[in-house]
Amino acid sequence: MPTLFDAHSHLPRPGSPEPDHWRVVCGTQEADWGAVLAHAAGRDSVIPMLGLHPWFVADAAPGWDLRLEALLRVQPCGIGECGLDFSRQAADRAAQETAFRTQLRLAHGLGRPLAIHAVQAWGRLLELLREEGVPTAGALVHAYSGSLETAQALQGLGVFLSFSGDLLAPNRPKAQEVLRAVAADRLLLESDGRAELQQVLEAAAALRGVEPELLAAQTWENGRQCFKEWLA
What we know:
232 residues; alpha/beta; TIM Barrel; eight-stranded parallel β-sheet; 8 helices; 8 strands; globular
């Protein structure tokens, strides 16, 4: 059984080598949903997810939510990447919240796992998850960058926390501190389509003081819990 699991990535760049491990591939806007599905169709080790990223909410064509739901009803996909990103001055927070609620409710209604993007919006994210509830099929926050206190709150709600190649940067002590403290059964790792997953795994294992093989097995099991429909 494979034990290396990439909890969050995107469509590979043309000409880039094909990873040989299981991975989640996320769409971020309607323009790439078809490409994500086509990429996953010929690859048993790819778990597709379709969503509207907060960066692209303002440009989404009317009816995007209905078209997303129609695709999800006929395709075995997760939902995401979606969420809240208040780091940009021009961010339309109300529109982002509406789009996130829509996708959160779809995850509930269709029984699909949810991939969440969150930047400088942790308090509001927690409020919305408490109001709407965390999907029973599973939910993860990708490239986690929040505080230890927020990490504890999210874990208490049953959310998985995924860590990216940011762990490799020497100026990310907060992410490294949180990585050390996350409960073993809530931890996931990811490439985010930019880092080598093996390097992320080795860095995370060193920070947690465990062997990479043990951490790979643990994050595989956590991935299996979050993506039950795909990982038997």
